[in-house]
Amino acid sequence: MLIEGSRVLVTGASSGIGAALARILARRGATVGLVARREARLAEVLADCRADSPDSRMWVADLADVGLAGRVALEAWDALGHLDCLVNNAGVPMRRHTTKLDRPTLEWVMRVNFFAPAEMTMVLLPRMTARREGMIVNVSSVAGRLGNANEAAYSASKFALCGWSEAIAVDLFDTGVQIRLVNPGPIDTEIWDLPGNDDPLYSGPKISAEEMAQGIAAAMEGDTFEHYVPDMRGIVEAKTADPDPFIKGMAGMLRGR
Ligand SMILES: NC(=O)c1ccc[n+]([C@@H]2O[C@H](COP(=O)([O-])OP(=O)(O)OC[C@H]3O[C@@H](n4cnc5c(N)ncnc54)[C@H](OP(=O)(O)O)[C@@H]3O)[C@@H](O)[C@H]2O)c1
Question: pTM of the full predicted structure?
Answer without folding.
Answer: 0.98
